[in-house]
Design goal:
This is Octaprenyl-diphosphate synthase. The chain is about 75% helix and about 0% strand. With about 290 residues, the chain is mostly helical. The radius of gyration is 19 Å and the shape is globular.
């Protein structure tokens, strides 16, 4: 991520210290595959992005630890940043697939992966990324982490498949829309927060609270994102809007819906005792304007 990205992105600028550490870990992981033909495509696929999901994992770990990650032993720190890379890579893999499915030709101001490298290379690179994720998971030697990564991947695929069916039918209910984004988007937010708590050795109540936080925040995030872009995109949310006679009233209903999910996400953090600034940041993230 270059200096221009920071200047244009207050979110990235605010979390510069965290994101730099996440990017360093991700770069180390990618550099370990410098021997591969997938190396340059992998670097291109991972370029840019706000690193929201690994940021949530890192903040969740600090919230449970009630201290900076630097206070943990070296193995725990290594695992946290390694799995944060796996989370970002899983998101990257889904982005490659999504851009093909949605026929999106631009991503983060650059040609989408399939536009630059072609469809065959896109499929193979996504497979290669999955192999990297499996390798990271194996090195953590933590079955719960592996399970959460696997569960998120399965849910993301289920959400995408359901969306394809609903778009094809051009008919969707609000409940079906929520189900799609709960799987396609919120599942990785949930996994991020939950894994952070697991790696910081949280108790079950803390782990569940952060898992719920991530899921609810993910739903709010996607509704907010769809509200911002719905005039420019012909996708699931547009179909939902067009089914309603009173567009303005429905948009207001959906704005209230995402605000409600944001409030519920923030409430999940109330039961976690923590004086560290990381908890405050997680609370602040429930204000979706902070992502803009």
């Amino acid at each position: 991520m270059n200096e221009r990205d920071f200047q244009l992105n207050p979110f990235v600028e605010r979390f510069n210290e965290y994101i730099n550490k996440i990017n360093e870990s991700l770069s180390r992981e990618i550099e370990s595959y410098s021997w591969s033909e997938f190396y340059l495509p992998l670097k291109y696929a991972c370029h840019g992005g706000k690193r929201i999901r690994p940021l949530i994992l890192t903040l969740a770990a600090e919230t449970i630890n009630n201290d900076n990650i630097s206070s943990l032993n070296s193995k725990s720190r290594e695992n946290i940043f390694a799995v944060s890379s796996a989370i970002e890579l899983l998101h990257t893999e889904s982005v490659i697939h999504d851009d093909i499915i949605d026929s999106d030709n631009i991503r983060r101001g650059l040609p989408s992966f399939h536009v630059k490298y072609g469809y065959n290379a896109s499929i193979l690179t996504a497979d290669f990324i999955l192999g990297i994720i499996l390798n990271i998971s194996a090195k953590t030697n933590n079955n719960r982490v592996t399970h959460e990564l696997s569960t998120a991947s399965i849910k993301m695929s289920e959400g995408e498949m359901l969306e394809l069916r609903l778009v094809k039918n051009h008919k969707i209910s609000q409940e079906e829309y929520i189900t799609v984004i709960e799987n396609k988007t919120a599942s990785l937010f949930e996994a991020s927060a939950k894994i952070g708590a697991i790696l910081a050795n949280g108790n079950e109540d803390q782990i569940n609270a952060l898992a719920n936080f991530g899921r609810l925040l993910g739903i709010a995030y996607q509704i907010h994102d769809d509200l911002v872009d719905y005039n420019n995109e012909e996708r699931l949310f547009n179909i939902l809007v067009k089914q309603n006679d009173e567009d303005n009233i429905f948009i207001e209903i959906m704005e209230n819906t995402y605000l409600n999910y944001s409030r519920l996400a923030k409430k999940e953090l109330d039961g976690i005792e923590c004086n560290h600034h990381s908890k405050k940041i997680l609370q602040d993230l429930t204000n979706l304007s902070s992502f803009s």
